[in-house]
Amino acid sequence: MSKEAVPPSFPEPVLSVRAWVDPVLDQLGHDPRSAYVETFWVPVLGPSSYLLLRRLAALLDADDDGGTFIAAEWAVELGLGIRGGKHGPFWRSIDRLARFGVLHRSGSALTVRRKLAPSTSARSGVSHPTFSNATTTGKPSTLRPLDGQQWRSTSRRIPTHHRR
Fold it and tell me: What's the CA gap between 146 and 51, in Å, rounded?
């Protein structure tokens, strides 16, 4: 007895995309495919959500009115597999973009920002001095190894239950 492949069950099999009009961000924001977004937003959004965002931006560039796509096809093309359902990897990527204000989802309609705001340490939860400096200057500073004193002071801030 052989099992036949069951097609994935996606909450919305076909999604429509349109641009989220924001005059300020559209003028001052960063393109989703820019080095800035790759440097400062990928640690926040995650790689799967970032790749999905790049694909959505390309769809909006191809047609100002937006377009539609088949969710299962994009999930496979992005390497997220065909595991459907509202908790599958593809839908988690969409939910993550929505959580950080990059898109808005209403049923099968996605409204997507064309540009992203400058990342802040509050948004990203990153407090490393390299990223703090980079978000204010727009340029990442060079990472240098910690000397002995810096290492000791850093290790003292780690709660004891996290130390080995």
Answer: 33
Residue 69 tokens, joined: 């796509």
Q: Look up the pTM and report it.
A: 0.70
Distance CA 74, CA 82 (A): 9
* Residue among 36, 11, 7 at smallest CA distance from 92: 11
CA-based torsion, 42, 112, 53, 77: positive or negative = positive
> Which residue in the block uniquely carries the two structure tokens 């990059």?
102
**Mean pLDDT along residues 22-50:** 92
Strand order in the sheet with 109-113: 67-70, 14-20, 109-113, 103-106
**Residues 66, 16 contacting (CB under 8 angstroms):** yes
Q: What is the pLDDT of residues 96-140, one digit of tens each?
A: 999 999 999 999 999 999 999 987 643 555 544 445 455 555 555
- Please give the backbone phi and psi of residue 30, each rounded to the nearest 5 degrees, phi first: -110, 135
**Of the candidates 44, 14, 46, the residue with the CA atom closest to the CA atom of residue 121:** 44
Contact 41, 135 (CB under 8 A): no
